[in-house]
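Training component of the fellowship. As part of building independent skills, the fellow (R.M.) carried out the full modelling exercise for a liganded target. The chosen ligand was adenosine-5'-triphosphate. The inputs are recorded below so that the supervisory panel can assess the work.
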Amino acid sequence: MSTYSILVVDDEILTLNNLKKILEREGYEVHLADSGERGLEIIEIYKPQLVLLDLMLPGISGIEVLKQVKEMERETIVIMMTAYEILEKAVEAMKLGAYDYLLKPFKINELKNTIHRALETLSLRIRILEHLESEKGRYYLGKIVAQSKKMKEVVEMAKKVASSEKTTVLIQGESGTGKELFAKAIHYHSPRAEKPIVDINCAAIPENLMESELFGYEAGAFTDAKKRKIGLLERGDEGTVFFDEIGDMSLNLQAKLLRVLEEGTFTRLGGNKQIKVNIRVITATNKDLGKATDEGKFRSDLFYRLNVVPIRIAPLRERKEDILPLALSFIQEFNHQLKRSYKGISQEAAQAMMNYPWPGNAREVKNIIERIMSLYLAEEIILTHLPFEIRNYQKFSKNRIIKEIIPKDSFLTLDQLERKYIEEVLERTNNNKTQTAKILGIHPTSLFRKIKSWN
Ligand SMILES: Nc1ncnc2c1ncn2[C@@H]1O[C@H](COP(=O)(O)OP(=O)(O)OP(=O)(O)O)[C@@H](O)[C@H]1O
Ligand SMILES: [Mg+2]
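Fellow's submitted model of the complex:
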């Protein structure tokens, strides 16, 4: 990992210099600001990953700075520092998206641990996405490419569930089909759009960390728990909590989540106070949760609770009409981003793209378009721009089928080849001769004749 940069905002010069020394020794790049105003300027210029922000500042307050940071740089992690033990202020800051807070005076180790955890969190992609116009624009349902009937139906469905405020949605689809896109679009089209969406990737977070991230904890709950931590569920209060890759959640946590959904309350780790939250839950998975349920890997009661409105996004190979519109919309996007002026896709390239099955779905289309457009300065995407496996997919797959049928060291006669093929189709149709004849494009009587001739 390259060096993280940290900005410290505090009006006490002594504190600034102290922290600079400590943090530089840890290998961070450090910027200092003695007021909120100056801090905001530095953030604008250097975009630090983390900000240590004093709550009590002479000019604009720490809370105000926090709000502005969250509006301009939603990825920036903010840790509040306060000399006053006013939990309310810190909790307010947490609700506004601060990651954590440090009570002054704090020990060097406490500082290091908090920063370390925060940066780890950053890499684990737990993000609180505050409402932002740009976010909202990015996840506008109208921008989702939907040419095929299947996709249009999904968009319609998403519009409907978005307006029903608390309905739980389960989005299923292969990797790269747009699950996250839909989850966020639903949130930003819902009456909760002005509230945060908390984005939790269940596959990326280790189980023990996940529990304390979700529920938070009280001081003393475990050895490292020096003080209370507000969990992600509380942060999502009145907003949406998006559990991505829910299929990877452990059975133990599934049970706990189910309780939250049923009762609307939970307790922080090590606490006994019932905390009430009003959250909308959206989940996504690329696993077959129904099957996982049958196999005992996913709790069936939770499955039914989550599956209130199921949204299934078909793989791209089952909605080929979307391939070129998707590609064109990505071309537009990257014309903008990469300062290119591509006008489209050549006939041949388009044909090859239509023939390819896109196992990585929309994301694969996007990646390939981006790669081509950053490599070549051209007017349109042409066949030779495409990666080998797409250009040669047809040839490739035809050869593959033949290679699988024909033994390496000998050849088959046409009759033998025909017999092998017919037997395969019979097997796949469970020996249904009418269906087999239909697939082979021959009359059932000629199929019967062939079968008879083998005996
Ligand atoms: N219908 C669509 N219209 C426009 N962009 C799309 C569409 N579907 C997917 N994308 C884009 O493709 C990329 C992948 O989508 P997304 O991250 O939502 O997929 P995912 O299903 O969550 O994948 P994974 O299971 O791998 O996490 C994103 O950049 C998304 O914006
Ligand atoms: Mg995803």
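The panel noted the following from the submitted structure. The longest strand covers residues 77-82. Confidence is low (pLDDT under 50) at residues 125-134.
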